[in-house]
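Worked problem 6 (solution included).
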Amino acid sequence: MYIASEQRYENMKYNRAGRSGLKLPAISLGWWYNFGGLDVFENGRAIARRAFDLGVTHFDLANNYGPPPGSAEETFGKLLKQDFAPYRDELVISTKAGYDMWPGPYGEWGSRKYLLASLDQSLKRMGLEYVDIFYSHRPDPETPLEETMGALDAAVRQGKALYAGVSNYSPEQTRQAAKTLRDLGTPCLIHQPRYNMFDRWVEDGLLDVLEQEGIGCIVFSPLAQGQLTDRYLNGIPEGARASKTERVWLTPDTVKENLPKVRNLNEIAERRGQKLSQMALAWVLRKPQVTSVLIGASSVGQLEDNLAALDNLSFSKEELETIEKILEV
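Solution. The predicted structure is:
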């Protein structure tokens, strides 16, 4: 029987999500990969247990996480029943809907029908009465924003979610979504964008909007799909994510193109007494608008490595300037 560590809150840093009452751990656990039906259940279980023991109170899921789609939520449902049920009120569980989940016109995007049906399915898979955060996973160009935000508001009013969030929305879409939700009486809690040293689009307006609107920010892909780790320092190892052709968002060409920058960044990390991955996480957290960063972990050791980023979150002016010069090349 799992009994959580009594020291679980001693070392984690918790940040407020925007102007809300909710705090999230500075590093949260993403369930995009490693918790699906094709993964080893006991490995995922060990990662989730260790994360909670180290103060990671936020598990981030989506309807389509797996593979296969839906299986990460099923895995969480098993873990909740077997391990985490006594700790439900200490956990922040999120899920999302927006990407392709089932056949036909009602299985993706942002209609009220899809979002609320998907949430019901997610709750059933996870064995939950409610999630803490329910997201619109991506903007829908063909559905009125009022309908999509109305569905998030309905989820909260029905008691199926405590908070509403958006993911992958542009600055202007975020501002409109925030206003719509505010008018409905369900403020937008948080935005989940991609952000890392190689993908800085959030700095071109989104972070300003989030600050103005009082919305939190939880970042995904802070390590650029593993590029900002020591994994690719000596080329692409066999079995690495960049060698798998179905993962089109990370190609061998991209890895090779960024390799000189990665090696230079690694030298700075070493001087800071950190691994490159730890520095990359700290770099994302340097922005005051960023509430939390999402990490994936394929092992307990990798999880612990990433959480050790919290041991050194400060940067000197010189370090930040050197990093900027490397990234500008």
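Discussion: The beta strands are 14-16, 23-25, 27-30, 58-60, 92-97, 131-136, 161-167, 188-192, 216-219, 292-295.
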